[in-house]
Amino acid sequence: MKTILGTLVAIFGIMTLATGCSTQVRESAQSGILADGEFSTDSINVLPFSRGKFLKIDGSSTVFLISYEAARRYQQKVSDAPAVAVSFSGTSAGFKKFCAGETDINDASRPINPKEIKACKANGVKYIELPIALDAVTLVVNPENTWAEDITIPELAKIWQPEAEGQIENWSQIRQSWPERPLNLYGPGKDSGTFDYFTEVVVGETGASRQDYTKSEDDSLLVEKVSKDPNGLGYFGLGYYAANWNRLKSLAVDNGQQLSQPTVNAVKTFKYQPLTRPLFIYVNAENVQNKSELQEFIEYYVEDVRKWVPFVGYVPLEKETYKLVSQRFQQQIIGTVYGGELQSEVPIEQMLQRESVF
C-alpha cells in the first residue's frame, strides 16, 4: 500500500489558475483516495497565478483527510469550483497561520486554545467554529505483537508522563505479564492537536509528555514506523488506522469502567472515553464575507460531510447536530463555544447551545 509521506499539499482545480502564467512550481500532492481505502501519492505541476479563485486550508493532519475529501468531491461536483490547497502542519502550527490571516480554513483536532484566541483577537481575525465529525484517538501496535490486546488509562499515563523518559523502556514495565522486550514509542509532535488532546486526557496536563519517542505531525509516517516495528506502540487519529487496519493492530482501552475498541458505536455512545473527541474546521469570517467561493465551499462541506466521512475513517455527527452546525455558519456566529477547553464529555449539540466567546 502506498501512503502519504512527508508534509503534503494537495491542490485541486489547478487549471483555473493557468491563464496568463508561465513558471512552473512542483508541489507534492495526494492524488486520490482509492475505493479500497488506500492512499496513493503523485506530483503535479502548480502554475503561479495572477488572478483566479483560490482557497487555502492548513492545520491538523487528522482533519486533513476530511478536508481533502471535501475539496476533491467539490471539484467533481462544481464546474467552476475554486482551486483549493489543502495542507497539514499540525493543529497548533495551523492556528499560527490562521490567526495571522494566512489561511481561509484551519483544520483542528481540538478546540482553539486561550493563547490562539488571544492571537486571533490581537490580529483582528474573526472566526467561525464548526464541528464536523467525531474521532477516536487510537492506540496501535504491530500485528506481530501477540501479548497486548488492551491497555488502561493509568498504564498509558505511566508510559507517556514526563517522568517515564529514560525509565519506562520495556514492555514488562507496563504489565508484568508482558514480555521483556524493548518498548519503542511513536506519536504526534508538539504542533499536533492530537498531542495536546492525548496529553491532557491521559497525563492530565496539556503538553506534558516524555520526549524520547519518535515524533511527527505526519500521521502517515507514524503508521509506517509502527507497521515495521514489532516492539512499537503509537497513537493517532482513527482515520489513519482505518486506512491501514491490515498493517496495524488497535488496542482496546480500559478507562476503569469499561473496555472498548475504537468502533463507531463506542464513539457515538461515548463508551470509548476519554479518547473520543470532536473534530473542527475554523473559518475566517471576514474571508467568508469577501469571497463567495469560500462561503459556497463551506456550505457544501457542512451539508455533505455526513454522507461520506465514514469512508475516510471518522464518525459522523447526528443529522440534527449538523443542522445546528449549518445554522451557526449561516448566522455567521463568531467565536468559540468551547472557550479554550476540551470538554469532550459534553455532547456537541449541547455545546452549540452555549454562548460564543471571542
List strands and helices in order, with pairings.
Layout: E1 9-12, E2 25-33, E3 39-46, E4 54-59, H1 61-77, E5 83-87, H2 91-98, E6 105-108, H3 114-122, E7 127-136, E8 138-141, E9 150-152, H4 153-160, E10 184-187, H5 193-203, E11 214-215, H6 219-227, E12 232-236, H7 238-242, E13 249-250, E14 252-254, E15 259-260, H8 264-268, E16 276-284, H9 285-290, H10 292-308, H11 319-330, H12 348-351
Parallel strand pairs: 4-5, 4-6, 9-14, 10-11, 10-12
Antiparallel strand pairs: 1-5, 2-3, 6-16, 7-16, 8-12, 8-13, 14-15
Helix pairs in contact: 1-10, 10-11
Short description:
The chain has helices spanning 61-77, 91-98, 114-122, 153-160, 193-203, 219-227, 238-242, 264-268, 285-290, 292-308, 319-330, 348-351; strands at 9-12, 25-33, 39-46, 54-59, 83-87, 105-108, 127-136, 138-141, 150-152, 184-187, 214-215, 232-236, 249-250, 252-254, 259-260, 276-284.
